[in-house]
Amino acid sequence: MTAVSAQTDPYRPQVWRIVEKQMETADTATLALEPKDRANAMPFEPGQFNMLYAFGGGEVPISISGDPRETGRIIHTIRAVGSVTRPLIAHERGALVGLRGPFGAGWPVEAARGKDLLIIAGGLGLAPLRPAILDALHRRSAFQRIVILYGAKDPDSLLFLGDIADWRGRPDVGFDVTVDRAGQDWHGNIGVILRLIKAAHFDPANAVAFICGPEVMMRLAADELMARDLPQDSIYVSLERNMKCAFARCGHCQFGPHFVCKDGPVFRLDRIRALLQTPEI
Amino acid sequence: MLSADQVKPGAQAVLSRADFDHLITVLQAEGYDVIGPTVDNGAVVYQEIDNAGALPEGVASRQAAGRYRLEKRADNALFGYIAGAQSWRPYLFQPSRTVWRAEKSGDELSFTEPEEPAPKMAFLGMRACELAAIELQDRVFMNGDAPDPDYAARRSGALFIAVNCGEAGETCFCVSMDTGPKVTRGHDLVLTELIAPDAHDFLVEIETEAGAEIARKLPLRAAEPQEVGRADAILAETAQSMGRALDTNGLKEILQDNQDAPQWGDVAERCLSCANCTLVCPTCFCNTTEDVTALDGESAERRQRWASCFNLDFSYLHGGPVRPSVEARYRQWMTHKLAHWIDQFGDSGCVGCGRCISWCPASIDITEEAAALRRHAEEADNGEN
User: Fold this and answer.
1) CB–CB of B102 and A3 under 8 A?
2) Which end of chain B lies in a sparser environment, N or C, as judged by fewer CB atoms within 10 Å?
3) Which of A98, A244, A249 sits opposite B111 (nearest CB)?
4) Start-end ranges of CATH 2.40.30.10 in chain A?
5) Chain B residues within an 8 Å CB radius of A264
6) Is the CATH code 3.20.20.150 the one for domain A14-103?
7) ipTM of the shown complex
8) Residue limits of the 4Fe-4S ferredoxin-type domain (chain B) (predicted)?
């Protein structure tokens, strides 16, 4: 028995190179990666994730934050919170990392075709939503309203400032942002994102919402949407759990009967709402 | 002696105790590492054995909640014990292994799997519940488009020689889980130990061609109808003497619909969260990875090892574990085992071997906890009506 080939060994990462690096905030960077071997470039769906390996540090699931139409490279936006993400974003341009993926079920952008599309992001939750936003804006006419609501801790933690300026300036996008706290130089909203949801323009009978952020924020945002008569089966959320393998085999990401890595990370709310409301699932 | 063309899948024959050593010799000659039961540190464990003398002859085991003791049998049965602490799981799904090594130098980063040939193993003495457990682990590790390479290599070369249970233990409930005591699938050969005052034989039933290849090299004689009848009678009596029972009727829904029941808090007051149940369970598959860097900083290794949902770091996300309470961790383990498994892999993750009961230092009994939850659910239903 010889070593299993890379094609069949699901644990073996491919080698990718960091070709661009941009600090989004003090602790968050966006990395553009290209495969060392061009043949390893792959398409992805908005909302999917990769397992990224920092040499010697370990591997973590990171959602893809780039444009799904931009083939040949993969964009990840990573916040340094642990022993793998810190070395990952400490890498300079040109550095090599390991990558396995893409994994998981993403945002069903097609389900919003002909409808209002609501994007509700909290903090780093904007990163996995960005591919869905870019995808929808590429074919803007396929949708009715597009509403993007973004909540962040403070003005310094806002991600994708270029995109924000673009979305804010577009007459065909309803964009609003709020922060939890800000200094006097902030002229925008201060407060929880729920207030933006209350005020948002959409047709609850003909809309689809994608929510990504901290779990408690997603729960409350979903409640607020339901209070506005958006049905549960029109609401999607993206969950985060500890993951080691990304193909339903290590057991870590279980969420009730679901494997977040394979059945998610994006779930339709009606399928997981009871679990979402149970503590410590 | 039976002729070679009589020894084929579906055939029954008899191997005498006096010739039992031949079985191990033949397996070794065919290139198998023979893994079988032997007594080590007061318990029956599965290890590589050289000859029939290593088998636990005349050994009985007595199990109860939180208790396991070996005793002497009145006879010289080779397989007269109840399945021991550890199943065959470590031989297929290794407790710890190197997944790959990474080398980094200059502008190079490469990954290489270790070139370790999988051992060719013959498992001797597998019980029906243990075969059922392997069938379940197959669904985890061999499913879909990305089978686990290490598990698949070990699994594909393995020969399974099963033994029908001659008696049931105090913590056994395979009948409830529909996995035993009769060996019905997954094996290559199955033996039933027949002990009479003047005879000691094994009824050998051949299931596969791989099993027949071994059997053809053994001094077998034809099985008498009364020997086959005695084997059936032994199995019927074993099935009647299960020490435990688990009512699985509607159990999946009871567990999944009662995640906030007070019973979880009750069991959490007793549970030490020690992870013993997950280590002895033959179907637990959770695992984690560790990355180790060499001191020169130029090579690193990824290791995979068994993990337990009872450990705090199992569910760790930045900020803390998702399941900080013992209550939530016990609930996760039991709900996964008895309910979510059915959604995930089509069957309960419990085979009724009873190990988690015997090896729980707090004597927690999964069948009692399930029954308590069922009573709670029924009371809740009555309250609503």
Assistant:
1) no
2) C
3) A98
4) 14-103
5) none
6) no
7) 0.95
8) 260-291, 338-369
Q: In percent, how much of chain B has pLDDT > 70?
A: 99
- Mean pLDDT of the B369-385 span: 89
Tokens 């597009």 — which residue? A146
CATH of A109-276 given 3.40.50.80, 3.20.20.140, 3.30.1380.10, 3.40.50.2300: 3.40.50.80
CB contact under 8 A, B314 and A242: yes
Find the closest chain B residue to A84 by CA distance.
B291
**What integer pLDDT is reported at residue B385 of this predicted model?**
58
- Predicted confidence (pLDDT) per residue in B361-375, tens digit: 999 999 999 999 999
Q: What is the pLDDT of residues A115-153, one digit of tens each?
A: 999 999 999 999 999 999 999 999 999 999 999 999 999
Q: Return the pLDDT at B5.
A: 86
CB contact under 8 Å between A6 and B111, yes or no, is yes
User: Does pLDDT of B191 surpass 60?
Assistant: yes
Residue ranges of chain A that CATH labels 3.40.50.80: 109-276
Whole-angstrom distance, CA of residue A5 vs CA of residue B113: 9
A5 touches chain B (CB under 8 A): no
A86 touching chain B per CB within 8 A: no
User: Number of residue pairs across A and B with CB atoms under 8 Å?
Assistant: 128
What's the pLDDT score for residue B380? 85
**What average pLDDT does chain B have?**
96
- Please indicate if any CB of chain B lies within 8 Å of the CB of A279: yes
Is residue B1 within 8 Å of residue B220, measured between CB atoms?
yes
A82:B318 CB<8 A? yes
Task: Establish if A7 touches chain B: CB-CB under 8 angstroms.
Answer: no
pLDDT tens, residue by residue, B9-25:
999 999 999 999 999 99
Q: What's the pLDDT at B384?
A: 66
Cβ contact B260–A8 (<8 Å) = no
Tell me: the pLDDT tens digits for B213-262? 999 999 999 999 999 999 999 999 999 999 999 999 999 999 999 999 99
- Are B112 and B103 a contacting pair, CB within 8 Å? yes
Indicate yes or no: CB of B287 within 8 angstroms of CB of A240: no
Residues of chain A in contact with residue B146, where contact means CB-CB under 8 angstroms, are 8, 10, 247
Cβ distance A251 to B307 less than 8 Å, yes or no, reads: yes
Q: Report the C-alpha gap between A245 and A60 in whole angstroms.
A: 9
Contact A247 B287 (CB under 8 A): no
- pLDDT level of residue B299 (50, 70, 90 thresholds): very high
